[in-house]
């Protein structure tokens, strides 16, 4: 059995049938990658004396695929490199309380959008404060839906420029020691308030469990915003 076929058979394990629909669809793509299930195109040598035919099976294009995902990742990184600004960059992470996991699983699109909105607005509002920067920074955000132990753990990673543009000119970073960009406690408080406001106002969200109990559990809990020192270089 070819190594590629043996590898793809891992994605056909019977236990996968217990996964959620999204995960099952991902594994189905990975199992079918570069096989007839994804179709193929036929190439013929244009030399009359040859005329050899070659079948090229299509890839799945799934971002989770070890083959397809790496190419898309490299292209994405190259595009981001073109956007780098001549300043330091900070790494920040906005997480959600685990009590919200069932709710997020049932409302992925809505709550992931709300996560991005609350995190980005927290960063932008702090950046516009004169005492912190007084300008709009460059922000790149990436969603992660798993933790280090591969459990469901939605959070968003943010790469934030230390300097920014105030609409007229470039504003240099105000914190020359580069220990932090904005205070973690201030960001966590604003992020929590904005997310909860959006959560309570959206009547289209499908609740799993008692809504009041869930809101009470997360309202009196500390929300985590992690802010690291700048990277060694923008690259």
Topology:
Blueprint: H1 3-9, H2 21-32, E1 40-44, E2 53-57, H3 68-81, E3 89-95, H4 101-106, H5 108-128, E4 136-146, E5 152-165, E6 170-171, H6 184-201, H7 211-219, E7 225-227
Antiparallel strand pairs: 1-2, 3-5, 3-7, 4-5, 5-6
Helix pairs in contact: 5-6
Describe this structure in words.
With 235 residues, this protein is α+β, with helices and mostly antiparallel strands. Helices cover 37% and strands 20% of the residues. Helix 5 (108-128) packs across helix 6 (184-201). The radius of gyration is 23 Å and the shape is flat.
Tell me briefly what this model is.
This protein has helices spanning 3-9, 21-32, 68-81, 101-106, 108-128, 184-201, 211-219, and strands spanning 40-44, 53-57, 89-95, 136-146, 152-165, 170-171, 225-227.
The oligomeric status of these chains comes to single chain
Span of the ends, CA to CA: 42 Å
Mean pLDDT: 85
Structural class: alpha+beta
Encode the helix/strand succession as letters: HHEEHEHHEEEHHE
Radius of gyration based on Cα positions = 23 Å
Number of helices: 7
């Amino acid at each position: 059995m070819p190594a590629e076929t043996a590898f793809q058979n891992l994605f056909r394990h019977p236990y996968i049938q217990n996964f959620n629909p999204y995960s099952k669809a991902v594994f189905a793509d990975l199992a079918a990658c570069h096989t007839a299930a994804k179709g193929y195109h036929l190439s013929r040598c244009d030399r009359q004396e040859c005329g050899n035919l070659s079948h090229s099976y299509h890839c799945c294009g799934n971002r989770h695929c070890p083959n397809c995902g790496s190419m898309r990742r490299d292209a994405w990184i190259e595009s981001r490199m073109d956007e780098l600004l001549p300043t330091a960059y900070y790494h920040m992470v906005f997480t959600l309380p685990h009590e919200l996991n069932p709710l997020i699983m049932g409302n992925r699109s809505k709550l992931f959008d709300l996560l991005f909105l609350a995190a980005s607005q927290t960063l932008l509002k702090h950046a516009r404060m004169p005492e912190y920067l007084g300008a709009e920074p460059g922000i790149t955000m990436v969603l992660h839906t798993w933790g280090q132990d591969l459990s469901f753990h939605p959070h968003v990673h943010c790469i934030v420029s230390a300097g920014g543009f105030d609409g007229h000119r470039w504003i240099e970073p105000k914190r020359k020691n580069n220990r932090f960009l904005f205070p973690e406690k201030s960001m966590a408080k604003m992020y929590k308030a904005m997310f909860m406001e959006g959560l309570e106002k959206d009547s289209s969200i499908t609740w799993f469990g008692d809504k009041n109990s869930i809101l009470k559990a997360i309202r009196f809990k500390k929300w985590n915003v992690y802010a690291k020192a700048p990277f060694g270089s923008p690259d």
